[in-house]
Every structure is written in C-alpha cells, then in structure tokens.
Amino acid sequence: DPAFQRRGFGTAIWDRYLALCDHFHAPAVRMYTGEHNVASATLAARKGLTVALRTVEGNLSLDTVPLP
User: Fold this and answer.
1) Separation CA 57–CA 60 (nearest Å)
2) Contacts (Cβ under 8 Å, ≥6 apart) of 16
3) What is the pLDDT of residue 3?
4) Are the CB atoms for 34 and 40 separated by under 8 Å?
5) Residue 38 and residue 56: Cα distance in Å, rounded?
6) What is this structure's pTM?
7) CB atoms within 10 A of CB 44
C-alpha cells in the first residue's frame, strides 16, 4: 500500500525475518518480487540480497476460447 511505503515497516519486517533465519540457521534466504517493484528491490539490496534468478511470467486470456 503506497500510503505505508517509506515508513520503515518493510525494514522492520525484514530485520525480524533475517533474525529468525539466523536463529534457525537457514541455509538460504529468498525474496520474490516483480521486476518493476523498485521499492522492494531497493529494500532487498539494503539487506544484502542480490538477484539470483530472473523469470518471465505471462497471462493468457481464455475469454475468446470456446468452451468444449
């Protein structure tokens, strides 16, 4: 929600998440986000995460496909 962006909520959540990962000795930490989500990518970079994989998603509208 844009009204809550840049107010430290995401950072607080990530700080807690990473502390739990450290506590439980997680072998890896992943974050999935949209490529155009600049706020999410910036937060991830500040927390030391790097891009490991880029994928492409798609949507196929079936509105014009006749039902059997």
Assistant:
1) 10
2) none
3) 80
4) yes
5) 17
6) 0.63
7) 19
